[in-house]
Every structure is written in structure tokens, then in C-alpha cells.
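User: I would dearly like some help making sense of a protein record. This is the protein in question:
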Amino acid sequence: MSQTTPLQNVLSRLSLRLKLTLGYAVVFTVTVLLGGAGVYYAAERALTASLDSTLRETASVAQASIDQEDDRAKFQSELKPSGDLSIELLSSSGRILARAGDVEDDVRGTYPVTPGFATEDALRVLTLRVDDVYLRVSRPTDTLLGFLETLAQLLLVGSVFMIAASCGAGYWLANRALKPVDAVARTAESIAARGDYAERVPQSPGTDEMARLTRTVNLMLDGLAGTIEREKDFARTAAHELRTPLTVLRGRLDLALERPREAAEYQRALLGMVGRVEALSALTEGLLALARTDAPAELEEVELAGIAAGVVESCEDMAHGCGKHIRLNLEPTWVRAEGEGVERAIRNLLENALKYGGGEEIILKVAAHKIQVISGGPGPDPAQWPRLLQPFERGAGVQGVSGSGLGLALVSALARRWDAQLVPEWEGETFSVALVFPAAGSLSSFPLVR
């Protein structure tokens, strides 16, 4: 396990604003220091080059003013260097042979005779070989050094000012940029504390990242609020639906225990309760299946025709009890779905057709990534179809038929889970419901598995 450094511990205790400001300051400080160093170096090079140019021009004039008299080199009397320039003629050993210009009294008697430019003490020197002697031209660098010192002070003061200004500007920008984040955090804390899911984050203007953040958070809160309301409605409705059969069951139990009875009477009472218990079990299973549709889907290749044939076989007794017959029209069709869910969806569609459909024949058709259940009769009112897809909603005139109102709601939820569509069709005296899967998920070339 890696250990944190003291710097990491300090940074972890800082707010994001201060971290961003510190980052701005570090980057700007490095940039300013590098820029200042570059300016100082460029100025030094330019001033040194200017001074060297002056020395070179002076050396050219001085070289033309050298005379030989009695085998001794000297300058012409007309040579008068300007300002603080000094000119010397040196022997090969560095001894002074002649001098012109600004010369101090305590000047040295010998000088180095290395040709080229050099900086000696506080002088900039140019040394040239002329025949058997050396020409030395020099000028003090105090003016140059004074200018560079002033420049360095200006750069330092300016850098400190700019770094301080950048820290202030960086903090202001970080604070302005993070205001929507603060609003999101405050809204989340308020929702967590008060449970008010109607509250929303103030929308940031524009289309930048913060605007997208606030818009996305508000959309998330809208979806969360809708989900919570649906869950509340579902819980209230489920509690109501469970209360009725439980109340009836409790009444029958109280009635059976009201006074001593014969064993045969107890048996009849218990048999009457079995139907209620079975209805409660079916309702509970439907609720659990509907709740599981919120879990992530685990899609796999599913063969529809084989599953449909198995479901029809298990529904034969129910069909005989309703006085109806189920006719199969199957073609090999593979889709991406969940086998258990597909089986439940087909069963629910068939049971609805057997309970509420007209005629004596129910057709179950599987072809081209589609399951279709066709029954006789006009079917439900088209205007009421969206309502029938909600839990515990039932059509008009069918209250006398047993059922919980979860069949179509579960099929609709499963269809959304698989990106499929639940499509009703009204054609004359027939009504059909089709579960249509995405065409990309169809693999109809696979062999039929029975």
C-alpha cells in the first residue's frame, strides 16, 4: 500500500478552488520566470553585441593610425578615441608600447595578448594582432552592467506583480467556474436532507461544460423524480391490490374459527382459501417479475419458435378450460433477448387472449423477429391501450374475469428492456398483439431447435 507524501496530505486538505489557483500560479510563475530570463539574456546579448561593434570600429580606426618610427610602433597624434575608450599597442609579451584614450594612472604594465573579444575585470576588450604587435581596444562595462541591473529589477518587480495578479485572477476564474458545481452540491444536499425531488439546479447560460453539467443534472433529477413517483404509485397500488385478497382471506379464517365445526366444514373452508392463496401467489410472482425488469439486461441468442411451442404445450389445459384452441404458425427466428423473459411474455399474451379474446381459436405466429398473438373479437378500446400497459390496469367490462392487471404491464416492461416494441393491431373482428424485436438481432438462418 503506497504512502502519501506530506505535500499530498497538504493538497488533499485544500479546496478545489485553491488547488486550481495554485496550479495557475505555478504555471504562470514558471512562464514569467522563463520569459524574464529570456528578455534579460536577449538584452545582454544585444548590448554586448553593440559594445563589440563599437570596439571593432575603434580598432579599425586605430589600426590605420599605427606608425613605425625608429623600429618602434606608435599611434599618430591625430588618434583621439572618444568617451571612455582606451587603446594600447602591446608587444608579444604584453608590455605596453603605446597608449591612447581614457587611461587610469594605476593601469597595469602588461596585458594578456590573446586575440579576440574578452571581458577582463570591468572592461570589454578586443585584441588584434597587427604585424609583430598587438592592438588592444577596451571600454568599461559599468554602463552595460547598470542597465542590466535596472532591467533585472524591473523584471523582478513586474514578475511579482503579474504573479500576484494571476493568483487573484485564477481564484476569481476558478470561483466563477465552480459556482454551478456548488449549486449542484447544494441541491443534492437539500434533496438528501428534505427529500424534495422537485428542486432543480439553476441552469447555467450558454453551451459550455458547466451548462451541460447543470442541464444533465436537471435531466437526471427529472428522471429520478419520475421514477420515484412511479415507484410510489406502484407501491400504493400494489398494497391496495394485496389488501383485498388478504382481507377476504382473513375474513374466511375468522369465520372458520368463529365456532367449533366438523372436520368436513373445516376442509371446505380451507379448500375455499386455497384459491385466494393461489391468487396471492400469482400476484406476488407478477410483482417480483415486474420489479426485476429494472435490473440490467443479460441478452443472449434466443430461438423464439422453440420457446413458443413449449409455452403453448403448457397452456393447453387452460385453453381447454376456456373452450378454445391454440394454433401455431412457427418459423425459425433468433433474436437477442432473455429466454425466461420471452417465455413469460408469450405466456402472458396467450393468457390474455384466452381470457378476454373472442372466438374459439387463438393463433400464435412467430416469424421474422416477431411474436404475434391473434384472437377474435374487437379487443380493448384503442384509446385505452396506453392505460392498459400500466400495472394493475384492466379493461372495461372484464372485472369479473380473474386477473391482477400485471400481464400487459410486464410484457411492455420486458419489451423496453430488449429494445423491442409491443404493437397492437385492430383489423375488423380480430385483435392482435405483436412483440417486435430489433431487426439487427434476428438470426433467422439458425436451425430450429424443438
Summary: Residues 300 and 416 are 16 Å apart (CA to CA). Residues 441-450 have pLDDT under 50 and may be disordered. The chain has ten helices and 14 strands.
